Amino acid sequence: MKINNIPYRTIWPTADGAVEIIDQTRLPHEFVTVRLESMRDAEFAIRSMQVRGAPLIGVAAAYGVALSMKHHATDAALKATCDMLAKARPTAVNLSWAVERMRALLLPLQACERADAAWLEAGRIAEQDVKINQAIGRHGREHIQVIHLEKGDTVNILTHCNAGWLATVDWGTALAPVYTAFEAGIPLHVWVDETRPRNQGASLTAWELAQHGIPHTVIVDNAGGHLMQHGLVDMVIVGCDRVTAHGDVCNKIGTYLKALAAFDNGVPFYVAMPISTLDLTLLDGVLEIPIEEREQEEVTHVSGLCDDGQVRRVRLTPEGSKAANYGFDVTPARLVTGLITERGVVAANTAAILAALAD
Fold first, then answer.
1. Where does the record place the catalytic residues (predicted)?
2. 278 and 159 in one domain?
3. Is the pLDDT of residue 90 over 80?
4. Cβ pair 241, 285 in contact under 8 A
């Protein structure tokens, strides 16, 4: 996608064997790129959320393995690298998927072969992510177009958190249908949940939509139900970090409440995801998906651009008040209208999911 009309991806290899990323902790007020030269740089980027979004952290981890193999390519180094990167964040299945794909490819190879093979494989994973997201965009656009033709007016789409191109290598998951519909000339408007506590909606989704010229409005997290009650939301599209074999969806905290409101008001609720986000080892999302608990400070403090042009961090809560910071929640399959994948829109149930995998 574009930043100030210049095409960018969120992660890219350099000519001298390093990797560069967009530091998403600095957006929207500063556009900064960071150079990764080692596995530990990649692990820090994932853990600190310089890169975030399930598909992107998988690609970042793959490049982390490749960077490690440049320096140490023994069996012990490969194991230590993969184990450390897989633990960088616990909820998104794409992370472990990418790491295990790299491990499986490299383990049978001689140590002297691993660096080149890892670099090529990380690049393939990145390119596959772009193609997958483009396909998600095409399939999702069809549903936006149907609503537009039925309504004969602008399609209002609500999204939660950031599942745009900043959460992937390019195009995004939940926003890929928005971008493809917009480029096809379908009139649309996006309601952007702020997404406390890290404000990925207000900071990242709004920023990238603005860069692309897409009409949007930032709303507080608790406004979605009100908008649905008054007929101001035509569909909800969110991303996800893990989907169970039964179709339960794990996404940013607050997604479940949007799904409940959508169900109560007859608003279609779609989840955009690559097939790699499926975790067929899990059946009950609420009981089995590990939910990341992050630092209290993300809730108690907030950063923003002050009137003097400086970005500052300030406390919101009283000194001494504890804060709980659950990063994700689980939306039961019964509340999901459909899963928008690279293979088409799939019903959120075991039979449909297994059929999609077979295809």
1. 241
2. yes
3. no
4. no
